[in-house]
Amino acid sequence: MRRCLHAYAGRVGYAEAADLQERCARLLKDGGRVERLLLLEHPPVITLGRNARSADVLHDEATLESLGVAVHETNRGGQVTYHGPGQLVGYPILDLSPDRRDVARYLRDLEEVLIRTLSQFGVTAGRAPGLTGVWVGAEKIASLGVHLSRWVTTHGFALNVNTDLSRFGLIVPCGLRGAAVTSMQRLLGRALPLEEVAAAIVPVFGEVFGREMAPASPPVAPVAAPALTEVA
Amino acid sequence: MRVDVIMPQMGESIAEGTLTRWLKKPGDKVARDEPIFEISTDKVDAEIPSPAAGTLVDIKVQEGQTVPINVVVAQIETEAGAAAGAGKAAAQPEAAKTAPAAPASAAKQPPSAAAKPAAPAGGGSDGRDRAPQAAAPAAPPAPSAWTAGASTGGEIPKASSLAGSGATVDDLRRVRSSPVVRKIAQEHQVDISRLAGTGVSGRVTKKDILAAIEGGAATAARASGAPDRPASPIPAAAAAPRSAAPAPVYAPGQRSSVVPMTAMRRKIAEHMVASRRTSAHVTTVFEVDMSRVMRLREEHKQAFQERHGVKLTPTPFMVRAAVEALKAFPEINASIEGDNVVYKKDMNIGIAVALDWGLIVPVLKHADDLSLSGIAKAVTDLAERARTKKLSPDDVQGGTFTITNPGIYGSLFGTPIISQPQVAILGVGVIEKRVVVVQDAIGIRPMVFLALSFDHRLIDGAVADQFMAHIKATLEQGKFAEIV
Fold first, then answer.
1. Are B72 and A84 in contact (CB under 8 A)?
2. B291-298 contacts, C-beta under 8 A, 24 or more apart
3. What is the pLDDT of residues B234-249, one digit of tens each?
4. What is d(CA A118, CA A134) in angstroms, rounded to the nearest whole number?
5. Which residues pair with A136 in a beta bridge?
6. What is the rounded distance in angstroms from the CA atom of residue B429 to the CA atom of residue B281?
C-alpha cells in the first residue's frame, strides 16, 4: 500500500502553502514515492480559481485589505472562494497514476472523505448532483478545487469547521449566487478544535484512497515545511 | 514530422474539456512532457504535457473553447535532433521519418506512439502499417521499443482531419466513438456513421455497436475472435484458447500464402532474436506446492472481491513472492551496461499479457510499495487497459523483472526469453493437482513449476537457485498477512 504522510500544520499563509505544495508535488513528479496530506488553516484570503469571474469578488482590493483579507490568483480549478481562520483546508499531494486517473472519481473520493468524517461528528452531509462540494441540505459546508499536473494533485478541499461565515458575503462563492454556506459550528452549536477534525479526516482519507497514513516526522511542526518536505 | 496534441480524456465519464490557457505560443520550442496548455473540467484544472519535443505550430483550439476529448488542439513539429532524444533512442532508427506520408496509415498512428521518440513508429495492429524499417540497431532494443507497437491504437486516436471547422456530424460521431468501438467497427466492417448512438452527444457506444452487429448490420462475416474477449493476465487458468491469426487465403494453384508481418509481430521478432544474441540464457525449474496460496485465496476471495472490487487470483501472490526474493537478491533486479552492473532500486514488474493480436508486457511500477490488494488492482487495471488498448507508452516502460505465464494454456513450464535489458524472467506453469510425496506418504497437492530464465553473464546458478528457493519458501510458508 502506498504511504501517505500527513501533518496538521496550523495557520499557514496562502503563498507559503502554495509553495510548499509545489515542492511536494515536484518530489512526486521527479520520481519520489511519498505522497502527502497537508492539513492547515489560512489567514483570511480570497482566492480566484481558473474559472473565476472578477464580478464574483464583491469589493475592491482596498476594501478587502482594510478588512485584513488578501486576494490571490491560483491555478486550482473552480471559481472564487474564501479561506480563513476556523476553516480546515486539506491539500492532498497524490499521484493518481496508475489506477486512479479520473478527475471525476478524484472529486467524488474527496467528497466521500468529508462526508464520512462529518458523519463521525454527527453531521449528515451529502452531494448535490452537478455541484461539486459537500452539502448539508441546501447549504454548502465544504468546497473543492484541484490542480493536476501529470496526474499529481495539488490544492484540495476546504471544510468549514468554525469559519466566520459572514466573510463569504465578500464574494459569490463558487459563482453560485444565493448559495448559502454553513459550518460544523453552526450545525452542532459548538466550536471544534481544527486539530480534532484533522485527526478524524486522516484515517478516513487512508481508507478511501487506499493509502497507509503515517505522521510526518517531527509529528506536528508549527510550520509544516520542514516536516513535509523531508523525504521519507 | 508533425505530432498531434489532443484534448485528453481526464476520466471515464468526461466527454469534453475546456481549454483555459495556452502556456506556449505558436513558434515556441517545447520539451516532451513540458506543460503546454491547461484545461479545466468541473473543479479541476490540469496542465497538459506535450506529447513530443519540437516546436508548437498551428493552434487549432483557442482559450475558452470547449471541445470533445480526442479532438486535436494543436500540432508539434518535431525535429530530427529533438526526436532522437536521449539514451537508447539514439540507437533506434526512427521509422516515422522515413514512413511515406500516407494519410490512411498516419491516421492510425496515435500521438501516444508518436510521443515516444525512442520507438520506431508503431503501426496499427491491423497490420496495414508498413513503414519501412531501417536495419536492426547494433544494440538490442529496449523493451519499450518492441512493446511500443502494441500501444498503438491506444487511448488517443488521431483526429487531425476532423478537427477543422469543416468536420461533419458523421465525422464528429466517429471522433467521439472510442477506440474499442472503432476497432470493432473495423473488424466487422460496420459504418459507425450509420448507427444511432445512445452515448454522450450521440456517441456510438460499445453496446450500440454490438447490438448493431447482433442485429445483422454487419456486412461481412464475423472476424475470428469475439470482439471483446478479455486478455488474460497471468494465472487466469480458465482462459479460452486464443484464436489463431485469420486463416490464410490461398490463391488458386498456390501452395503458400505470403502475408507481411504486422508491426507488432515484427517488433516481437526483432526483440526475441536480439535478446537471445545478448544474454547467456540458462533456465532453472522449481516445483512449488501452492496449497497454502490456494487455501488463502479460497478463504478470502469473497471478502477480497467485496472489499477491493477485483478477483483474488494467484497472480498477486506470485508478484509478492518475486518482489520479496528480488529484495534479497538485488543482482536479479539489475541490468548490464557495458562493463558495469546497474542495480535498480525500483522493482517494476513486467506482467506478460496475451492478447488476441499478440503479446504485451505492461509494467507494474513500484511493486515493492504495493500491498497484495494493491498488486491485484494494478494488475487488473493493466490487463484491462492492455485489452482495450488504453496503455500509455509509460505503462510498458521501465520494467526491471518480468513474470510470464505459459501455464495459461496448460504448459507445465516454459523457458522464457529475457526481456532486455533485464537479466531474468520468471515463467509460471499451470497450477494443477498432482500426486506428491508428503512426509513419506502419498498426497494430492496443487503444484506448479516455476521456471527462471536468467542471464548467466551476471547471475551464477547458485544465486538463481537461491532466488527461486526464496520464492518457493514465500509461496509455501509466507504469511501474506495483509490479505484481510
1. no
2. B291/B445, B291/B446, B291/B476, B292/B475, B292/B476, B292/B477, B292/B478, B293/B317, B293/B475, B293/B480, B294/B431, B294/B446, B296/B480, B296/B483
3. 433 333 444 455 677 8
4. 10
5. A139
6. 19
B10 touches chain A (CB under 8 A): yes
> Chain-wide mean pLDDT for chain B?
73
CB contact under 8 A, A49 and B44: no
Q: Which residue has the higher pLDDT, B332 or B176?
A: B332
The helix or strand, by DSSP H or E, that contains position B323, with its residue range, turns out to be helix B314-328
Residue B381 cell numbers, joined: 487495471
pLDDT at B1: 84
Distance of CA B165 to the CA centre of its chain: 34
Q: Which residue is closest to A29 within chain B, CA to CA?
A: B33
Among A114, A132, A110, A111, CA closest to A123: A114
The residues with which B443 forms a beta bridge, in sequence order, are B436
- Tell me the CA end-to-end span of chain B in Å, nearest whole number: 52
> Considering only CB atoms, which chain A residues are within 8 Å of B49?
150
Q: Across the A/B interface, how many CB contacts are shorter than 8 Å?
A: 97
- For residues B208 and B405, what is the distance between their CA atoms, to the nearest angstrom? 35
- Residue the block writes with cell 491555478: A75
ipTM: 0.75
CA B263 to chain centroid, in Å, comes to 15
Query: What's this model's pTM, rounded to 2 decimal places?
Result: 0.46
CATH top class, domain A2-229: alpha beta
Domains of chain B listed by start with CATH number:
1-89 (2.40.50.100), 264-483 (3.30.559.10)
pLDDT of B23 above 80 = yes
